[in-house]
Design brief:
alpha+beta; three-stranded antiparallel sheet; two-stranded antiparallel sheet; 3 helices
């Protein structure tokens, strides 16, 4: 049975609502640098507190999931393709900035989405 694009989108939208544990290795903000033809990922460190919330290691304040956050990234990774960026993040960086497999899978999916948007001239919004 072939499923429509709308049905497949609904599956992913529902899965996006599930609980996931935050990565003690930090988090990434992914964006496109269209002028340079690059996918970029700013990496930020965090600490996970006893409630499972991401906390700024410098201030001890909870990092909100939505809205503007004034923090300084630790590293900016960039690549022309999702694969190139994944190699930089997962193979060339020590210690690993990603410590959970579900976070690694999420990043791979998002980087492919960003690459497709870059190629097709579409907007990219991180999920």
């Amino acid at each position: 049975m072939n499923q429509t694009a709308q049905e497949l989108t609904a599956i992913d939208d529902k899965l996006s609502q599930r609980h996931i544990d935050l990565d003690p290795g930090g988090y990434f903000i992914i964006y496109l640098d269209r002028d340079a033809g690059l996918i970029c990922a700013k990496h930020f460190t965090n600490v996970i507190d006893e409630r499972g919330l991401a906390v700024d290691p410098e201030t001890g304040k909870v990092i909100p999931a939505r809205g503007k956050v004034e923090r300084t990234h630790t590293t900016v990774f960039s690549g022309r393709t999702a694969k190139e960026l994944c190699v930089k993040i997962f193979e060339e960086t020590q210690p690993y900035p990603v410590t959970l497999l579900d976070h690694a899978a999420y990043l791979g999916r998002e980087l492919v989405r960003a690459e497709i948007a870059l190629i097709n001239g579409q907007d990219y919004v991180q999920d």
